[in-house]
Amino acid sequence: MNVPKIRKLTAKQLALVDTIVANGCSIKDAAPIAGYAVGESGRVTATKTMKLPHVQQYMMERINEEFGLSATIAARQLRTLASGAKSEYVQLEASKDLLDRAGYKPIDRSQVQVAGDIRVSIDLG
Where are the domains of the chain? Predict the structure, then answer.
């Protein structure tokens, strides 16, 4: 059985992805910080690096980690808005969003009524 070999990232590749995810910057800005050559050649090499499947996989893992960490901050902010916003509308919307995310979404009520008479006549003569 052939098991695909998992490639390890180099220190530069790790630094490039970590810089992009942590700073939210472009490849052009992250390349020199991560140790790639300054200028066009470093940017081109970094761009090619970012297209490698194992580098893309690591980037997706890092982005998921960042979203997970940010989710707690967002949830706290939503709770703060639901209980302390000056606008009652903001309180209402934050409360509805919290309930929705907790699984208490209102039933989606839609009524579809189709009326009409369809006749098909085929004359083969």
Answer: 11-101
